[in-house]
Amino acid sequence: MFDCGPATTYKMAQTGLHPLDIDYLFFTHHHFDHDVDYPCFMMTRWDESVGKENPLRAFGPNNTESITERLIGEKGAFAYDINARTNHPLSKSTYELRGGILPRPRMNVMAKDVGPGTVFTGNDFEVTAAPAEHVEPFHDSLAYRLDTSEGSIVFTGDTEPCERIVELARGADALVSMCGNFESVYDSRRPADIGQTGTLGAAEMAAEAGVKELFLVHVGPDLSDPKNRGRGITEIKTVFDGEVTLTDELTTYDWRKHDHSHDDPPHGPAVHPHIHRH
Ligand SMILES: [Zn+2]
């Protein structure tokens, strides 16, 4: 799972996902709209467990370990409830009824602060990070690439368009990019308030990386308004000729549907004015 913003656990339930379906969590950054459901997610996951599950592994830029410790460590905000649920007879019998064997183990979340590079290699997937450019130095931000035998998908997180994310996304099947608004809105505010990606920035990153499909997330109210969506997608298609999807909450999208047998090479380095280069 990438990020854990408001009501993630509730929305997972709405789409039929159980917290114990998720063993790995990757935070792009620690703005609250990307992490505030972390305590709900991990407490629910632990409360539903019977002790045989994999521990949750949480990765993210700096402060991932300290936030975890401050929530569920021995002096953490939820330490009282972890103690209650580990020791009270009511909780112990509920745990046994669910199939657990006493004594109930304390919660085990393996949190790790990470930076650019290979973040984690699993049996059948690998996650790699690149630095994003968002609100440094208050928060460090990462973009992630997930490589699997079924394809590769890149999550920009919150960022302004930047070359390092283009490099991370090179040749991936899908780019999931923040796309907060029409580029004209951001252009009128640059350069003081960059740190976000708009329509053309997302399109330029997707085109330059040579991905097959672009999914727009973190879409603000202007662009997600039904009367504006078509104009946004048209604007993006002037730059990026792959598939474009403006995503909605509580909706499932298949990013693995592309036939790899006759892939085109990535597009050449066209001039894309919104991408921050180093
Ligand atoms: Zn943010």
Beta strands, count: 10
Helix/strand/pairing category: alpha/beta
Q: Give the CATH H-level superfamily of the largest domain.
A: Ribonuclease Z/Hydroxyacylglutathione hydrolase-like
Bound small molecules, which ones? Answer: zinc ion
* CATH secondary-structure class of the largest domain: Alpha Beta
| N-to-C CA distance | 30 Å
| Pattern of helices and strands | HEHHEHHHEEEEEHEHHEHHE
Strand line-up in the sheet with most strands:
4-5-6-7-8-9-10
**Count of the domains:** 2
Kindly describe this structure.
The protein is an alpha/beta fold. The protein has 2 domains: 8-112, no CATH class; 116-246, Ribonuclease Z/Hydroxyacylglutathione hydrolase-like (Metallo-beta-lactamase, Chain A, 4-Layer Sandwich), CATH 3.60.15.10. 31% of the residues lie in helices and 18% in strands. It is built from 11 helices and 10 strands. The strands form 2 sheets. Strands 4-5-6-7-8-9-10 form a 7-stranded mixed sheet. The chain has a 3-stranded parallel sheet with strand order 1-2-3. A hairpin with a 2-residue loop joins strand 6 and strand 7 (151-155). The radius of gyration is 20 Å and the shape is elongated. Residues 29, 31, 134, 158 line the site of zinc ion.
In short:
The chain is of the alpha/beta class. The protein has helices at 8-14, 32-35, 38-47, 64-72, 79-87, 89-97, 163-169, 183-187, 199-209, 221-224, 226-237; strands spanning 24-26, 56-60, 109-113, 117-121, 125-131, 142-148, 151-155, 174-178, 213-217, 243-246.
